[in-house]
Amino acid sequence: MSRKTIIIVILLAILSLGLIVAGQVFWVRKAYDLQEDQFNKRVFVAISEVVQRIRIMNNDSAATEPVQQVASNSFIANINDTPHPFLLEDLLKDEFERSNLKEDFEYGIYDCFTDSIVYGSRISFKDLNVREQADQIHGLKEFQPDGHYFGVVFPNKSAFILKQLDFWMYSSFVILLIVIFFSYTISAMLKQKRLAEIKTDFVNNMTHELKTPISTIGLSADAIANPSIISNPERLAQYVAIIRNENSRLKSQVERVLQIAALTPNKVNLKDELLDIHLIINNALATFRMQVSELEGSIDVNLRAGNPFMKGDLVHITNVIYNLLDNAIKYTQATPHIEISTHNQGDDLIISVKDNGIGISKANQKMIFEKFYRVPTGNLHSVRGFGLGLYYVKTIVKAHHGKIEVESILGKGSTFTLKYKTAQ
Ligand code: ADP
């Protein structure tokens, strides 16, 4: 599948899933509103019935609009006299039960003269023997100082309504599972695609790196087969030397790749030697100075660490410095100006390698330490590699309990910073 097709497929799939989720949210809301409406209506009817029964008992004439909803879960009802709490409670329980509203509620009887609650209680349908007296009804203020009234609050109204929406809850759960499954599939698909790209890249690089020595060996072997060369021992020796050199180059290259590819972070065999990082850097610089001066560049060296000693493996730590300096030159298109510096920070030894190269984008900064990863734009024609250098660096730094960080601005340059514990 081409990159464009994959992007289109993913976008379409996200769009359709988004529509399904939005539709589900819409219908769940609608179903909730409907259930809430029904709940309110049933409460209205039940409380109106209670008021009616009290009035009949008291021989009162009916007032207009006896029941009002004062908050989403609170209702009040006007009455002409303060009813006996137990009577009111029994009537409420009876009417709620009849309306199939077996939901815990709180009620309060209010006095218009003192403007406060006369009696309040919390009722649970689960245990009808529990009557918990309350001198304040949660969420119900005194609303009507001009008359007697009682208020009813359903503290768990939302949970009660949600319980009625079990089909919607179930279907939402199924949709959530689909979304999780879909996201997982997409991420696995992208990962697979990236691995396939990395593999192709690696095979291309490997082929390129191996083709030159193989063809040189082939040409030299052809030359040796030529009778005029066989009879010329000097030329023969030259061709044999070429074959030998190219063969050993090939061998070391293949070995290096295999060794690094097989490197696992927790299984690096390290020597524990006392190392002077300044000495290691100076030795490495001897190699790189020539390379940089050929490109008319410069290397600034600021070795300021008062304590440049650390414990570690000389060969591996040297390779780390080599790899960073090598990359600093490799990934600089302009004249290379490299700075290598050290300093101490508490017990730490900080080493940084700064270049004025092509830089690395934020997204790629997270990936460059992965095995075989190469920044696609970093794949300049002249810059060959296997994407193993920084993986090796990170593995070795980690094995030494150190840290590596990169700061970089695309087009400006990069700074790789290493942090090791100093040897006291
Ligand atoms: P290789 O150099 O063999 O490709 P590395 O693991 O050393 O492998 O580096 C991985 C990638 O990180 C490189 O392909 C390159 O794109 C990027 N990179 C590494 N060092 C630098 C640097 N100093 N400046 C810019 N890009 C860099």
Description:
- The protein has 424 residues and is of the alpha+beta class.
- It has three domains: 12-163, no CATH class; 167-262, Helix Hairpins; 267-421, Histidine kinase-like ATPase, C-terminal domain (Heat Shock Protein 90, 2-Layer Sandwich).
- The protein is 52% helix and 19% strand.
- It has ten helices and 13 strands.
- The protein has helices at 3-58, 85-98, 157-164, 166-225, 227-230, 233-262, 277-294, 314-330, 362-365, 389-399, and strands at residues 67-71, 74-79, 105-111, 116-123, 131-133, 148-153, 273-276, 298-303, 309-312, 337-345, 348-354, 403-409, 413-421.
- The strands form three sheets. Strands 1-2-6-3-4-5 form a six-stranded antiparallel sheet, covered by helices on one side. The chain has a five-stranded mixed sheet with strand order 8-10-11-13-12.
- Helix 1 packs across helix 3 and helix 8 runs antiparallel to helix 10 (389-399).
- The longest helix is centred in the middle third of the chain and has 60 residues, at 166-225.
- Adenosine-5'-diphosphate (ADP) binds at residues 327-328, 331, 355, 357-360, 368, 373-375, 378, 385-391, 414.
Question: Concise description?
Answer:
The chain is of the alpha+beta class and 424 residues long.
Query: Given this structure, which CATH class of the largest domain is correct?
Result: Alpha Beta
- List ligands, each type once: adenosine-5'-diphosphate
| Order of SSEs | HEEHEEEEHHHHEHEEHEEHHEE
At CATH level 2, the architecture of the largest domain is: 2-Layer Sandwich
- Please outline the major beta sheet: 6 strands, antiparallel
Distance between the termini: 57 Å
